[in-house]
Amino acid sequence: MNLIFDILTTTAILYIVAAGLLLVFGVMKIINFAHGAFLTIGAYASLIASQLGLTPVAGFLFALLVGGLFGLMVERLVLRPLYERPLDAILATWGLAIVIGQVITLLFGREVQFVPSPIRGTIVLLGAEYSGYRLLLTLVALGLGLTLALLLTRTRIGLVTRAVILNEQLAQGLGIHSQLVRFFTFALGAAIASLAGALITPLSSVDPNMGVPWLINAFMLVMVSGVSMLSLLFATLIFGAAQVLISSYVSPILGGMAIAVLAAITLRIRPKGFSRD
Amino acid sequence: MIDGDLIRKQLLRSALPVLLLVLCAPWFLDTYTTNILVRALFFAMLALTVDVLWGYTGYLTFGQSAFFGVGAYAAALVFTHLGFGPGYVILGVLLAMLAALLIGAVTGWLSFYHGSTPLYASVVSLVLPIVLTQVLFSGGTFTGSSSGLTGYGMPDLSVEDWFRLVGCLLVVLTTVVWLFVRSDGGRILFAIRDNEMRCSYLGINISVYKIALLIVTGIVAALAGFGYASFSGVVAPELAGFVFGTEVIIWVALGGRGTVIGPVLGAIVIDWSSAYLSGNLPYIWKLFLGIAFVLVIVLLPQGLLPAVFKGFRRFLPANTSSRALQLIQAEPKPVELEPQSLAVELKNVSKNFGSLKVLSDINFSASAGELVSLIGPNGAGKTTLMRCMSDGEERASGLVCIQGHEIKRIAPHQCVQLGLGRKFQTATVFDSLTVGECLRIARTRIDPPSFWRRSAQLSLPPYVLEVLTATELDQKLDVVTSSLSHGEKQALELAMVLALEPRVVLLDEPTAGLSMPERSLIGKIFIDLTSRFGLCLLLVEHDLDFVREISTRIVVLHQGRLVLEGTVAEVVDSELIKTIYSGSVGHA
Amino acid sequence: MHKQSMPALYGADALQVKAMTSGYGALMVLRNIHLSVASGSAVAILGKNGMGKTTLLKSILGFLPKQSGQVLLNDEDITTMPAYRVARQSVSYTPQEQALFADLSIKDNLRLGLPRDSLLAERLTAIYEIFPFLQDRMQQLAGTLSGGEQKMLLIARALLSRPKLMLIDEITEGLQPSVIQRVANALSTERQRHGTSMLIVEQNVEFALQVADHYIVLKRGEVVLTGLTREPSALSAIEAELAM
């Protein structure tokens, strides 16, 4: 039973981390290598919040806000000139990640720090004792997924965003300011990444380089999911399960790279990955 | 050869002083600096390999560090577990090269298959170092796990001697790389970066080329790593890691991608500076580098070196030959005449896009000496038909034979090898190369190029020379293709396709965008090709006047079906054509 | 090259193109184009494939940069205006290819034709009168409609926004005669009711003559013939030009 919880919660955490990256990839067709850095920003935002004595929820909201603001700045200054050069966009965002990492190190120091968990200890569920916070995160992931899905399918702005994802030129011909859509979508993606960072800090710790391993996994999951949120759910479930199973039964090191390797092989066999068409 | 002398002169001018500098420098530098510089020199070798792959071929790779790490660990493992001595050095070198070969082959197979995207190839290059570092971490005491290996036997050389040795090797390597990218064979890298599809349709097997390139650069990187481990006496998993891989990219980007010298200087300067500045202000320095990197990518994508040294270009190896290319006539290869076989034959060819039937049951054939025009309204399937004839994977069903050989499911470059040439609707040429270089690459299949020499002569069949003289492109052999007019680019593409000495040529709207005189010129050339040289030409055209003037046969396609076929007279004035083209289905 | 001036029949011009030269990269497809659409009138652009008709619409709308010349919309200079802003000046554009979001429903495709959802309900009633089949199929994915139905959906979307100017690219392609007639009727009705100006690119000469007041013929990126569609000699003059 614990194993099933492990799989579910790992899936949930991966989903939360990757969702923002997928949104950005769908609308802007580029991979944001600064995603891990936004994660780190969110983590430090929640650190600040906890040091200021704010409630955990306020800390999460603070992280969301900070991430969104950074996202707006990055899109305007770094990404906009690189729209036609997707490989260079990867490099520029990676450079940005380095810059952000160094600034954080300068401001906060290199030591590992901790943020207290909103829920401490374990909960007994379905006959097993399991970390309460991790189970909470599963609910958060569901909530996030649902919110994004509703946003995309039930609102006008979601429709406009989907139009830009499907065919940007056609959308422009219908009067849609696609530049603005990209601007705000990136900010939203950054905000979600930041929130993800804040959410995962209670699980381990906060340090300036925490974003990198998450970036790789999120990146591979997005590549394998195409542009569909549903495919992402599917991918995180399958690969998340693979990671947990391999870590538990074979070796944690192999488990750590399970997602990356499996995703690369999947794409080789089926270049569309898990997306429907 | 006159050009050979020129290269040697340039080499002596630039390489000898540098060699001299390398040999003398240790007398002026302190031991600490020399030590740092030797490390930097090894890194510069690694940077060179990244420049060849990324700067020249357009393959963004984060994984060259993996090869470097493999080489380093080969040295460390052999010296730690087996011992140190000349025999062991040789063993270590061979192991490093073998490992690099295997890893390069697997990575290349994974990344460079028919239909892979640049993004996917970069993804794989990212996964490689991650996997490797994890393997090293899990190696226990054998690989030293996270602490790495140290304290193994090393060559007994002074730091100064190391500097001279490695410095000279670096100069030699740089020269070799420079000769390679300047050579006729090296130009293929540019061609691949500019337009992979055109390369395929010139018969070049891109996948094999890229995999071979990856293996060779991988071996070089591994050897550099081997040297590094022998010098520094310590190896750690980070050497094979993704973060180091991205640092190399930063050096190349800042130094100047695609310049050979830029990455070398970038690696040396940045690594050296890092050693000094890291001590005092480690985070500020990394921050500065990061900012510089972002600024360069966004604002100065070519890198700092080209921007800064624009004025001193005379002293640096030039990219263009100062000697004009000479064209000489070659005898076209004799045709294996099988008088019965048709130039091209299609039987029951069909193609769908989902539920939409783009082509249904096409039966069609053409022989040598025919000039067949394929006409029909938009959406009739003409371009799709051409694609089915030139790419074995395009059609859903049916048979396609070129020169009597079934194409089954083969790739475009293999179709070209059967004697097919294809000219695209939008001029598909190599924008960053000169006219002469484009033609040289077009001859690759017939006349394989040298990988270190740049020949001063190019032999072309008579009909290609005619195209070049008629369009005056033979006066513009040194002009970069991107500055040609639209009509000139079309002519160049035609010349390139013909340089393949194809027996069947597919031409997609060859007159699009051409002026009246250009049209009549190209019409004459087409007639010549079929009547005098016995080629079979298939044209897709909308210009009915043009079609009427030059075709021996016309085929009409409408809604995916072949609806009419016959001589010019039979087809052009027929009722069917009028109704299809004027759009009125009866009177409204 | 013939160039007859077109008299302004209804007052100010909805659209004016002056000496426009544009194309793709180094290739100039259109050279020195002059054209005007009087307010409330319809102009047909005829010509064979590859002659620049689609390029003309794309240049007017702002998808392609213009090397020289001017485009005026209701006397306002839109030469350098980005496409999405031109569209917002009450200009509707129906492209020839990839004109619908195949993965979205009919309703969503129609919604995207309007700047706000609040206008949808009332405008839809008018659309249902012209194309009743849409009413029961609002949730159906646009990509599953037949070719003719898709074109009718395109017209519906264009009419929904009550544009002042409609740019239509080869709407009749692949349609059977009865559907073509319905489309012609829909456009004529729209012009009568709202005085919409139209610029229609067509290969179907008879449809163009039925729907438009004026015509121009493009050949190799230049205007070679213009005239009034109601002249009895129009059809033969056009056919002669196209056949040459």
Feature tags:
heterotrimer, A: 277 residues, mainly alpha, two-stranded antiparallel sheet, 2 strands, 75% helix, C: 244 residues, alpha/beta, six-stranded mixed beta sheet, four-stranded antiparallel beta sheet, 8 helices
Q: Gist?
A:
With about 600 residues, chain B is an alpha/beta fold.
Descriptive account of the structure:
The complex is a heterotrimer of chains A (277), B (588) and C (244). Chain A is built from eleven helices and two strands, in the order ααααββααααααα. Chain A has helices at residues 2-28, 35-51, 56-79, 86-108, 132-154, 156-166, 168-173, 178-200, 211-225, 229-249, 252-269, and strands spanning 122-125, 128-131. Chain B has 23 helices and 14 strands. Chain B has helices at residues 2-24, 31-56, 64-81, 86-111, 118-137, 140-143, 159-182, 187-194, 196-200, 206-232, 242-255, 261-280, 282-299, 304-308, 382-390, 412-417, 435-442, 462-470, 486-499, 516-531, 544-550, 568-572, 575-582, and strands at residues 149-150, 234-235, 326-329, 344-353, 356-366, 371-375, 397-402, 405-406, 420-423, 457-460, 504-508, 536-540, 553-558, 561-566. In chain B, the strands form four sheets. In chain B, strands 9-11-12-6-13-14 form a six-stranded mixed β-sheet, sandwiched between helices. In chain B, β7 and β8 (405-406) form a beta hairpin. Chain C is α/β, with parallel strands linked by helices. In chain C, α5 runs parallel beside α6. Chain A binds chain B through residues 31, 78, 81-82, 85-88, 90-92, 94-96, 98-99, 101-103, 105-106, 212, 216, 219-220, 223, 251, 253-254, 256-257, 260-261, 264, 267-268, 271, and chain B through 60, 110, 113, 115-120, 122-124, 126-127, 130-131, 134, 137-138, 242-243, 246, 249-250, 253, 283-284, 286-287, 289-291, 293-294, 297-299, 301.
Largest sheet of chain A: 2 strands, antiparallel
Computed over alpha carbons, the radius of gyration of chain C is: 17 Å
- Unreliable stretches of chain A (pLDDT < 50, length at least 5) are none
Can you tell me the residue ranges of chain C where pLDDT is under 50 for at least 5 consecutive residues? 1-10
Q: What's the number of helices of chain A? A: 11
